[in-house]
């Protein structure tokens, strides 16, 4: 099962970074390139334990639906979301938050399993892991930017 590990250091309070990471609104901003929409479940605001969201987006040239659920939640230290339905055979995305000096260190562990057996493993090697890493990095850069430049106030207090 491929696993992507990312670490992002952010000059903002851990609570702000945690809330941005679970914000449907921030996610939509960070995925404008894929025309992502929240079409069912919780479609705005902050995700909590057991919340579900169905996303619709264009990835790799195809529109796809992906349903996820928040399966673990320890504010402001950790949460996990897992795929319920979608293009993957399965995935789990764990989000960790720690304070280090004047920074929040946000760590992601994204483990996924592609469908189609050997063919899926070949797709992973050729491009899928790189694609997913880039997708997650773009999201993390949006979280970092909003947390550090003050735009978090508009995102977290818009509702």
UniProtKB/TrEMBL annotation:
<dbReference type="InterPro" id="IPR023393">
    <property type="entry name" value="START-like_dom_sf"/>
</dbReference>
<protein>
    <submittedName>
        <fullName>Ligand-binding SRPBCC domain-containing protein</fullName>
    </submittedName>
</protein>
């Amino acid at each position: 099962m491929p696993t992507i590990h990312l670490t992002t250091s952010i000059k903002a309070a851990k609570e702000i970074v945690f809330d941005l990471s679970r914000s449907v609104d921030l996610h939509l901003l960070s995925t404008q390139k894929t025309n992502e929409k929240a079409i069912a479940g919780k479609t705005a605001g902050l995700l909590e334990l057991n919340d579900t969201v169905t996303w619709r987006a264009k990835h790799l040239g195809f529109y796809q639906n992906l349903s996820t659920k928040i399966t673990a939640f320890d504010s402001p230290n950790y949460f996990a979301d897992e795929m319920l339905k979608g293009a993957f055979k399965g995935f789990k995305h764990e989000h960790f938050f720690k304070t280090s000096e004047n920074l929040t260190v946000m760590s992601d562990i994204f483990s996924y399993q592609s469908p189609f057996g050997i063919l899926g493993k070949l797709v992973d090697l050729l491009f899928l892991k790189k694609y997913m890493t880039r997708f997650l990095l773009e999201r993390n850069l949006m979280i970092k930017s909003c947390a550090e430049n003050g735009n978090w106030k508009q995102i977290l207090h818009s509702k």
